[in-house]
What we know:
mainly alpha, 73% helix
Amino acid sequence: xxxxxxxxxxxxxxxxxxxxxxxxxxxxxxxxxxxxxxxxxxxxxxxxxxxxxxxxxxxxxxxxxxxxxxxxxxxxxxxxxxxxxxxxxxxxxxxxxxxxxxxxxxxxxxxxxxxxxxxxxxxxxxxxxxxxxxxxxxxxxxxxxxxxxxxxxxxxxxxxxxxxxxxxxxxxxxxxxxxxxxxxxxxxxxxxxxxxxxxxxxxxxxxxxxxxxxxxxxxxxxxxxxxxxxxxxxxxxxxxxxxxxxxxxxxxxxxxxxxxxxxxxxxxxxxxxxxxxx
Length: 278
């Protein structure tokens, strides 16, 4: 018989993840119009590829987690399914972070040096997060008793060592936020735009990751999967909105420059008006 606290934790985690999938679907229809406006008729480039991965692979990841939460799989081997689900989760969040990198690169006047540093740090963070977690999992794994009866590996729980990955994610997101805050007050102090409002909302990303770490280490292990889909959904939602805001900002600056050129002086040079997303 499952202990009450374990049963309550697993049920809570299931509800949170299924609810996260519902929020993702609802948000998709809320933002379908700006997606059509700002992405569908544009050429394919790195930005659009990352957007598609972040926006649509999130559905696959959230759907797989929700299926794992509600399906009865007592007699199945879930190891391959769980590995695929984890991989899709990682790819989706990495794509969302990629959009944030592009945003930071654009606001730093397309500094290739900064972009190279951010990409190298991202690669190091991903490699360290995955490899360290795997090593710690191997070191802390309970020895297999050959005489023990076979048991299902489909329990909707995860290892506490997953907090290692969230720790690297928090550090990287704080780095991107710090770069944006610095540039905001250096070059855009007097500029009012919805884009900067979205940048402030971005602070939710590391906060959710910290919450995930706290849950992983402080509550019973049956609650560990509680923020799995919500964190994925938040990354997808915010990354998409930031991209839409970037395109809107780009168009506003282009229209302003055109207006000044045509009504004030043909020799007027507006300087850096485009973020270069296209």
